[in-house]
Amino acid sequence: MLIVKQTILSEADKAAVETMYLSGMSMSDIARIYGCHYTTIGRILRRRNVPIR
């Protein structure tokens, strides 16, 4: 059985994700920092209405 760890980011973390992405970091690089999948970062950005590049 595979156990999957769920990464829950605080509002401060989500704001930092947005700032990092807008400053030019890739979703993959940000995901590596927070220990989550890049799709999690993409979901956060979409919910915050950040244009995806």
Report what the structure shows.
57% of the residues lie in helices and 0% in strands. The protein starts with 10 loop residues before the first helix and ends in a 6-residue tail after the last helix. The protein has 53 residues and is mainly α. The radius of gyration is 11 Å and the shape is globular.
Counting helices, strands and paired strands, the structural category is mainly alpha
What is the β-strand count? 0
Q: Spans with pLDDT under 50 lasting ≥5 residues? A: none
Give the N-to-C terminal Cα separation. Answer: 36 Å
Largest sheet: none
The amount of helix comes to 55-70%
Number of helices: 3
Percent strand: under 5%
Mean pLDDT: 94
Q: Give the overall shape.
A: globular
Protein name: Helix-turn-helix domain-containing protein
Organism: Candidatus Eisenbergiella merdipullorum
InterPro entries: Homeodomain-like_sf, IS30-like_HTH
Pfam families: HTH_38
List its salient traits:
53 residues; 3 helices; mainly alpha; globular
Topology record:
Blueprint: H1 11-22, H2 27-34, H3 38-47
Helix pairs in contact: 2-3
Pfam families: HTH_38
Domain Transposase IS30-like HTH: 6-47
Protein name: Helix-turn-helix domain-containing protein
What's the quick description here?
The protein is mainly α and 53 residues long. It has 3 helices and no strands.
